[in-house]
Please model this.
Amino acid sequence: TQLLEQSPQFLSIQEGENLTVYCNSSSVFSSLQWYRQEPGEGPVLLVTVVTGGEVKKLKRLTFQFGDARKDSSLHITAAQPGDTGLYLCAGASEGGGSQGNLIFGKGTKLSVKP
Amino acid sequence: NAGVTQTPKFQVLKTGQSMTLQCAQDMNHEYMSWYRQDPGMGLRLIHYSVGAGITDQGEVPNGYNVSRSTTEDFPLRLLSAAPSQTSVYFCASKGDSGSYNEQFFGPGTRLTVL
Model:
């Protein structure tokens, strides 16, 4: 069974601080996605990384896929209260098995205080 | 273009009752799926479908049935609700069976089984 370990589970920081969220597995994934979820709503896709070593930037958010495609990180620079939410990583099976079903990590609940 | 819609938003059931959670999408997506989200557990796949007439089990299918008679609709049925099925349920869809496509999530149904 493929598992995605996400850490930390909770993170409470002050506005302006930097933070990194990690997503790790012993399995290889063909791609990895990061979603953000706000209370009472469904997750919304932030980014998809596909190539080992790939780095993508979305404003103050930087996403990296590990060289071996087993892990990923999300770094937020100068966090703002609007970044508050639940961040989820999700991996797609290597080889496209199970029609590309996603395996989700348990999430990181981020709170950014003004 | 409404995306993915789910009804009802909230539901309270007594143990043993049955109900159907509705899900519809207007993006002509072939792939649809149902997840449940529990505190500290992330999103877990219940059932999925790669097209009308085709369904398959995910990670936690017991106690749930699905059918896919049209591309647009993918209802989730609880035949005899149990307190362990208290959760938030999300329906999602994506463009094809490839693993890189974004999953679009509905707003969720919060179910309580007493």
